[in-house]
# Entry
Amino acid sequence: MNISHLSNLYGEINIPGDKSISHRSIMLGALATGTTEVSGFLQGADCLSSISCFEKMGINIENNRETNTVIIQGKGLHGLSAPRNILDVGNSGTTTRLMSGILAAQQFSSTVDGDASIRKRPMGRIITPLTEMGASFECLANDKCAPFIIHGGKLHGISYNSPVASAQVKSAILLAGLYAEGATTVTEPALSRNHTELMFESFGADINVTNQGKTVTVRPGIDLKAQRILIPGDISSAAYFIAAGLITPNSEITIKNVGINPTRDGILTVCKMMGADIKYSNVKNDIGEPVADITVSTTTLHGCTIEGDIIPKLIDEIPIIAIMAAFAEGTTIIKDAQELKVKESNRIDVMSTNLKLMGCDIEPTEDGMIINGGRPLHGAVIDSKLDHRIAMSFAIAGGLADGDTEIIGAECVNISYPHFYDDLYNLAR
Ligand code: S3P
# Structure
């Protein structure tokens, strides 16, 4: 895919549904009793992987791809049946880790596998606590990696201090905790996204959150009740248009219906730190998750330092933040973000290599990167490494660079944002 010069991005845009909430809607819908109706579901390949895995376990799921509504006939906590085939998670880390928490508690064994990227991602972080709860894992290729067989069984509650601030780890343990004997508690070093906790509450689970959100306890013995779920637009997808509106000359973009949950809004804080004026309108909170329309316009940004507890609140947005930093005046330092190395690609390496190819002054560090912004960028051939967030970030950078940019593997945006390029070009005047 070739990206040519873009300017004057102007108009309104509706972004697709939140990926994290879409996954959780399928899983909790499957485990609840009754019919769960979901609207605003993300039709990205990752969420479709979650659907197909639960269908393989006997759950009837009707997905209307025109209206983005999904109807799940939940069978209750003990209604899943043994899958006849491998559970293929595709590229989806969220499917792998959250579903493993559920599989750990089943009276059957199941095999989980995914694509080349999934096979490299660390699974020790869920294998350790789920094994402590009573499940057992057999890794079929490499230690602590997919593919693996999960032998589920009777679990007991644990009190777990997670070494990483990861919503996937936290959620896997909490899902297993729905089935365990006694209470299950997870404490994380910094607050990660809390969509699982919010959805547990609305489905009626016995959950208790303390320690400014960092400690969560779930107790078993309550049947989940089917819900209506209205999924807001994904702030991680909105981030590309927020950045584009700020750094593209003569632009003003309104992004409608964006989920602005405080555990996800680090990108907005960073834009403000860099000098942006973010305008909110239609702010609502009638679905358990706060939502707003966001308007941004062209701004001269300046560098800043991003570190500490804000990192989990913007972990998926660091690639596009790096692009903003490349166009900002002064230095941006990103620290405490070593988790970037174990995402869909090694995002520290891939961002630095590719931004350097475009003429940016960027240095990778052990836990982040240092970017001296303000140099004009030129077009280049960018290898996305099939990482959707890398492809979308360089589409925005390519639009601002001199000359054409070619993105290799550009179609990987399908993972989280199937119509991304159309939406971007529709804003160009
Ligand atoms: C997610 C959590 C994050 C994020 C991922 C989605 C989730 O991963 O990077 O895209 O839905 O729970 P970690 O929790 O492992 O950091």
Q: What stands out?
A: The chain has a mean pLDDT of 97. Residues 20, 94, 166-168, 171, 192-193, 315-316, 339 surround shikimate-3-phosphate (CB under 6 Å).
